[in-house]
Design goal:
Blueprint lengths: L3 E4 L3 E5 L2 E2 L8 E6 L4 E5 L5 E5 L6 E8 L3 H10 L7 E11 L2 E16 L13 E14 L1
Antiparallel strand pairs: 1-4, 2-3, 2-8, 4-7, 5-6, 7-10, 8-9, 9-10
Length: 143
């Protein structure tokens, strides 16, 4: 399955009104579809039935933030809430096409943190990044 790579330095991520700012230099966000867009049933005589899937817009957003940053504190508060926090937001990436500035937008709806970060300690580099995964029910792209 394909993955959509969004360069963090050209991308703004806002979830539940919170703007993320603590990405590592040169890092990236990954927005990956979880399910196929369509399904097919093939017949023995060469026919095919193609159907759109109702879960085709489900995406996982992988976010890596600096440990102990405001972004880490915000993600941790969503994880530690008494009941699951529903997350909605957007990702906007600036680009230029044929000399014209434009914005690619993903509208992210119906999400929750599905994967807590692994917390590894070492004495070499300090493990200054934490990786979270948020699954969204819908991620719609607009150009």
């Amino acid at each position: 399955m394909s993955q959509i790579i969004l360069a963090a330095e050209n991308t703004t991520l806002v979830i539940n009104g919170y703007a993320f700012t603590s990405f590592s230099e040169g890092d990236f966000l990954v927005l990956a579809p979880v399910n196929p867009h369509t399904s097919q049933t093939n017949s023995s005589n060469g026919g095919v039935n193609i159907n759109g899937r109702v879960d085709a817009d489900v995406h996982d957003l992988t976010v890596r933030v600096q440990k102990f940053s405001a972004d880490d504190v915000q993600m941790n508060s969503w994880i530690n809430a008494q009941s699951p926090t529903i997350l909605n937001g957007s990702s906007k990436t600036n680009y230029n096409r044929d000399g014209t500035d434009a914005v690619e937008t993903y509208t992210l709806e119906g999400g929750s943190v599905t994967t807590k970060p692994t917390n590894t300690k070492n004495n070499q580099d300090g493990n200054a990044m934490l990786e979270y995964v948020i699954r969204f029910r819908s991620a719609v792209r607009a150009l």
